[in-house]
Amino acid sequence: MFIMRLIFNLFFLNCLVAICYSQSVYKYPEKFDNYYNFYPEKAKEILLKDATDKNRNAIEWHLISSVYEEQFEFDNNSVYTNWTEYEVYLNKILKKVVPEFAEDKKVEIFISSDVSNNGSSAIFGHIFLNVGLFESIKDEATLAAIIAHEAGHYKLKHQINKDRYRELMFRNKNLDGSMLDGYLKSSQRMEIQADSFAYTKIKELGLNTQNLIDYFQDNSAVYQVYRYDILYKYIIKASKLSNENLDAVRQKNYTPYASHPSDYQRILALKQTQGNCLNCTKKFFVDSALFVKMKKSMLDEKRKKLFETNRYDQCLRSTFKEYLIHPKNLKNLYYIIECIRRTLFVNPKLKQEGFLTQYIQDSELNDYQKSILHKPDYIFYSFEEYETLKNHVFFTGKEKPFNSYEEAFHFFVEEALKLNMNEANFSKALFYHRSQQFDSCNAALKNYLKVENVLYKDFAQNLLVSPKKIVSSNKTLIIYNCSDYTPYMIDYYGQESYQSNYHQTKARIKENQTISNILIRDTFSNKIIFINELYGNKPKLLYENQKIISALNYLYEEDDFEVCRKIKLSKNYMNEMEDISALYKKNLLLFAPEFYNYFKELGIGKLFYINVFNAYKYALNDKEMTNNYNGYYLDFNKQRPYFKKAVRQGNFRYQKTSEICKELNAFLYEE
After folding, report:
1. Model confidence over 26-63: pLDDT tens digits?
2. Nearby residues of 624 by Cβ (< 8 Å), 6 or more positions away
3. Which of 127, 459, 543, 602 is a Cys-bridge partner for 150, taking CB atoms 3.0 to 4.6 Å apart?
């Protein structure tokens, strides 16, 4: 089986990635490296050993919010492990910019899989830089400032102070606005202190800060709903931050009840710290070539992550801008084509909507269904991007190559085929299959199969012979996921907010055998995977299942559950509500064909995904306050899925796990 998986992965890599220029890609390992295990159970024993009634709540809060939560980040694939080349490089920068940490082994940098433009530091010294952070960073000087900022949080013990404040808020059931405001103001002071620490460090190294100023401006709160005010950016550039326009920056950037100071304040503090530093000229000081390579890898990884977690709008925007610069890059074309196809697969009503305009409030674009090509400034995140690409022929030409999403799909498919990217034929076939244009679908499949080495040969042949019979196996894969939470504070509106309770998720493994005994009738027709057994154990297998779960959550919404419920109640419902029944023209494998090979290898023809939500009042107390569950049952040869969810009567909000599984068992074998 391992050999089959290896062959498939190499095949996929050759078909999709090798056609592009070389890069350093991340691959989730088969086994979890124990280097990234920080043993939260030992920390629990040590901290609780001398606990008193007075401080026990505080210790429990600390355990769940810091100890277990940080371990969960590693175990849950939220942090890349064993990306050695870049980890070593980033830690070199750390030790140069903050030399007092050179011998402190607790202070170490890791790369987070989060695609947002941010970084963070943990209470024990670990620094996390999001993969999405690197797109906006132009040089090592800017990167060094961000690293030093996060190191400053650790050195100044900010995380400990934040935990104490939040634990106080957690215990205060009569939380008022002044307490929350006090917490946020405290947070802003900590950010300014960390900035000051960082600015002093980069000044000592003689690092140039102009790109850091640009970084703050380009990622400021001026950017709202995918748009920068380009004219405003011109004012900032032309004025060189005069006092008059700095006031405008302050007004634009300031947000009440924010956890961070405004970018106006941060730029002012930077200028004051740096002063007239004549020696601050260096932009690179470790390895400029490796920086460029890492930035490219991070951007590739960000788009891959966006695509694999079904954030197609963000992936499409980012990749479209890259396509404008590199129109012959086949990976860019693949992402664009598949992002459009999968978006329309879930929401066919977007076909005639303007390309990349569905979230933009602009009457000219919306009323006349014009594409983003008519007002490209909406997609640029920075002044530099706008200046680089504003004269592209797509934007300056009177005749636009496409307007709607459907037109864009066909345009990019043809561009890909001109470059002999045969996988575009399969995307084309799946597009026609979704709209039940089977003649056009078959024509595209035949063109696709003319080439011997294709990614989805078996899948394409099956669709060509029998469009409705996608798989031959009847075996059912059951994916069982439990999501455990603990209320950790009372929010501004007096409601309890919840945080993942990794302690309970790990402890729940002891129930897995009981669950398996109830849900599995025989191992010949069923296979079960427990997500909590994969945490910190099998990263690659965990990620395969995480992608499936993400796709299911994107593909099927609450409306699907409701339609399914009504169909079961009324035999005539489908005839009465034909427009709603169109929701069921969905199939996971047609939506995301990369799962076909995975399920075929396992011999799977049906999928039953179970997600159980559990909430606990206290982190270490195993008394559950409430629980709930959803179940998704899919037969890959049928268009319509079935859903099962908990129906609570009155105040009944809790069921034993065995009771939940008996209900799910009855549903599974009833269908």
Report:
1. 999 999 999 999 999 998 888 888 888 877 877 887 88
2. 614, 615, 616, 654
3. 127
